Amino acid sequence: MKKTAVFWQRLWGAALVCVLLGSVQAREVPGTLPQGAAIASAHHLATEAGFEMLAKGGNAFDAAVAVSAMLSVVEPISSGIGGGGFFLLHEAKTGREVFIDARESAPEAATQAVYLDAQGNFDRDRATNGPWAAGIPGLPAALVHMAQNYGRLPLKESLQPAIRVAHEGFPVYRRLLRGYAERRAVMERYPGTRTVFSPHGRPLAEGEILRQRDLGKTLERLAEQGFDGFYRGLTARRILQGVKQEGGRWTAQELASYQVKEREPIRFTWRGWQIVTAPPPSSGGIALAQMLQILSPWDLRSMDEAQRTHLIAEAMRRAYHDRTFYLGDPDFVRIPQKTMLSPYYAAGLRSTIHPDKATPSVLLPGEPTPFDEHPETTHFSIIDAEGNRVAGTQTVNLLFGSGLIPPGTGVLLNNEMDDFALKPGTPNAFGVMGYAANAPAPGKRMLSSMTPTFMESADKVAVLGTPGGSRIITMVLLGILGVDAGLDAQQVTALPRFHHQWLPDAIGTEKGALPAEVVAKLREKGHTVIVPGEVQGQRSSDAWGNMQVVEYNKRNGNLGAGSDPRNPVGKGEVRRSSVPVRIAGQ
C-alpha cells in the first residue's frame, strides 16, 4: 500500500513540475523525425511481426496489419479475425487522421426477441455463447482496407508472419490457459473448437504448442484474394455452414455486404494537448472529453489523494450515465455529439458534483449490477520513422468470444451481440446498461468502449489504448493524466487503476490501487469502494487491462515504448538503426 501511495505522489508531483514549466513547453518546437520506430503490443510475436514489415520497407500501417493479424493468432482469448476493431491512423506526410471502424454488425435475424426465453426473461447464454452471440466480423475487412489504402506492402506480405505462426504454432502461455479453463464448458460444446483447443482429447497444457492450421489456410485465402477470400467463397461458405449447424441464421449477403467505415475522429484540446480519439460507435472519445472537461478547472495536483479520487470518480459517473442513454451507432441513431462535447455542458455536469459527498447513482434511473471483468480485447500502438502512427484496439468481446469455431475455418467467432441493449435496461456482461440508442437492428454496429487515442503537444506525441471492457475508457483517462504528469510510456502502463461506471454505484479498484486510508476517506464521503478480496461475494479483478503505449519526443526524435507489466508476454520495443533496444515487457 505504501509503495502505491508513493507512486501516485510521484505522479502528481511530476504533474506539478509540468505546470511550472508550462510556459516553456507551450512554445512550438521544430519537428524532428523519430529516430527509429516504436511498437508496443500484448505479445512479443506481434511486436516482432510489426518490425519485420518495417524492415521490408513497410510503414506503420503495414506493421499494423502484421501486428493485428499476429494477435489474432496468438491471442485468441482476446481478439481474432472472427471479431472486429477500431484503428486510429495518423499520416505524417499529410497530417491527416482517420478512424477506421471495423466493428461487427448485427445479422438481420438477431432481433431483441430472440434473446428472450419463453417467459420473456433475458437469455444470457444465447447472448454470450454460440452462433446467436456473434456479429458479422469486421477485422478481416480492416486488414484489407489498411493494406490497400495506407500501406506500401501487399497484403500477402504483411499477413505472412501470422500465417507462419498459425501453421507452426506457438507455446501456450498461462493467461491463455486460465482463460480456457474458465470457458472450457462452452468451448467444448462445438466440434470445430474442440479440434483446435483440445487436439488430443484434452486441453493443451502450458508450454505445449498450439497449432491452428485451418486458421492459417483461412489467412492464406485472405492474403491471396483480399476481401473475397473471407467474405465470399470457401471461407464464407464454411462459416455460414458452421453457424447454421449450431442453430444460428446468417446469410451470404450479410457477409458479402460488410463494409469498413472511415469516420472523423473526436478531437478536443485539454491542458495544451490535442486529443484525437474514437468517435461513435465507440463511446470512448465522447466520454473522455466529458470527463477531462469536467475535471479541467480543478487543480487535482494540490489535492490529497482521497479528494482527487472522489472528483475523478464523480466525473466518471456522469460520463457513463450519458453513455447509457445517448450513444449508439451514428448511422442509426441521432447522437447529441455537439452538446456532449461542449465545455458548457461539462460545466453543467461539474456543477452537480458535491466536493465532499458522493452523488448516489440511485438519483438517476437504473438498477445496480455486479462487476465482472476480464482482460479481453487487445491493443497495440505504433510510431514509425516517418512519424506515421497507429492506435489499434481489437476484440472478440468476452474470453474466446462466443466459443464457436465453424469447422474447417479456425475462425473463433465473437460474442459482440451482448454489447447491444438486447433487453432495454438489462446490463450486459460488463454490467453496462443500454436503451433504444443501442438496440440491435440489421447491419447496425453495437456500442463499444474501445478507445484508441493520440495525444500531441508542442513537443510530444503519445499513442495509447488498452483492453478492459467497460473499464477501457477510465483506464485511458488515467493514462492521459499520467502522460500529462510527465510519466514515461512504461510508467503510464503500470499506473494503478480505479473505475466508476454509474451503475453499479461503486468505485472498483485493482488490488492495492488505493491505500487503506484513502479507501476509508472515500467511504466517509458516501462512496462504495470495492477492494479485491475484502468482502466475500464482491467481484473486482486483482489486475485490469493490458495497456500499450508508445511516445515520441518532437524536440530530439527520441522514442519510448511501454507494455503493461500485468501481461508477461507483452512487448514494447524501440528500434534505432536496426538495433533493438528493449524498453518494456519481461
Rg over CA atoms, rounded to whole Å, is 22 Å
Backbone shape = globular
- Into which percentage range does the β-strand content fall? 5-15%
Low-confidence stretches: 1-8, 12-30, 364-375
Which sequence of strands runs across the widest sheet?
6-3-2-10-9-1-18-19
Main sheet properties? 8 strands, antiparallel
Number of strands: 19
The first-to-last residue Cα distance is: 23 Å
Helix count equals 21
Query: Helix proportion of residues, in percent?
Result: 25-40%
The SS-based structural class is: alpha+beta
Mean pLDDT: 90
Description:
This protein is an alpha+beta fold. The chain contains 21 helices and 19 strands. The strands form 4 sheets. The chain has an 8-stranded antiparallel sheet, with helices on one face. A hairpin with a 5-residue loop joins strand 16 (548-553) and strand 17 (559-563). The longest helix is centred in the middle third of the chain and has 22 residues, at 305-326. The chain is globular and about 60 Å long.
Overview in brief:
By secondary structure, this protein is α+β, with helices and mostly antiparallel strands. The protein contains 21 helices and 19 strands.
Output the keywords:
586 residues, 8-stranded antiparallel sheet, 15% strand, 6-stranded antiparallel sheet, 35% helix, alpha+beta, disordered N terminus, single chain, 21 helices
